[in-house]
Amino acid sequence: MPELAEVEWFRKQWNAGIGAAIVDLVFHQKNRVFRETDVRALRESLIGQKLLRSHRRGKRMLFQFSGDNWLGIHLGMTGKIHVRSANYRPAKHDHLVLIQRERALVFTDSRQFGRVRFHHGADEPDWCKSKAPEINSREFDQNLMNGFLDRHRKAPIKAALLMQHRFPGIGNWMADEILWRAKVLPSKRIRNLSSQDRHQVFRATKFVVRRSLETLGKDFSDPPKEWLIHQKWKRDGVCPKHRIPLRHATVAGRTTAWCPKCQK
Ligand SMILES: [Zn+2]
Question: What's the whole-model pTM score?
Fold first, then answer.
């Protein structure tokens, strides 16, 4: 499932079309990805409008068009954003194609857990506003994180990291990466974290977000070689530091990997 850095990379794909008008729209009207969308309004409003800019909030993308039109896309499990040539013929899983004179902006999603939303209005839509500051912003600091952890003292730390309203954009692989780097067991209850643990989790969260935006988010290149992600999904994956086998279990409902030596 795409997490913050992958979403950032996909968001930028449509930048090729900034400044150009939408001349036609092709979509699979009955598709689940449009479950919260008035597709007629979407079509009538977007044709003739120019793509102005795009934003990312956690795992959500927001594309702003002229005429006060906004298109939100959540990639769900398998969603992808592409650019194709203007005469592109949409394939089965291309649920929304915005056609410009020189290119086609394509949203494709084979499993349809993604979501397309449309909003017409001067301001950014409410469904895209978030009270949670982005992790790579200055507002996301140790105090903010501590306050949140104090309200979830019974939860395993991994469950807290997956809460989108506080850690926007963090998903399964980033949470494991953060906890491995912070040397904290994913199943450790928040009430049992020392202040040193909290500090390490905070630092690791900032670091993993920043470095993954600089690699994956920038050009879809791999995160640094010594990261856990390269071992996490392997059956015989090892700790990048100790080369001992990783442990695996379900924590917070998600497949989780950790190093029994690094993480306590
Ligand atoms: Zn280790």
Answer: 0.93
Ligand 1 centroid–CA 179 distance in Å is 11
**Counting beta carbons within 10 angstroms of the beta carbon of residue 142, is it exposed (0 to 12), middle (13 to 18) or buried (19 or more)?**
middle
Distance 61 CA to ligand 1 centre (A): 35
* pLDDT digits 0-9 by tens, 131-170: 789 999 999 999 999 999 999 999 999 999 999 999 999 9
94-137 pLDDT, tens digit each? 999 999 999 999 999 998 889 999 999 999 999 888 778 999 99
Residues with CB under 5 A from ligand 1 (ion): 239, 241-242, 259, 261-262
> Which of 74, 75, 17 has the alpha carbon at shortest distance from 46?
17
On whether the CB atoms of residues 61 and 74 are closer than 8 A, the answer is: yes
Q: How far is it, in rounded angstroms, from Cα 186 to Cα 41?
A: 45
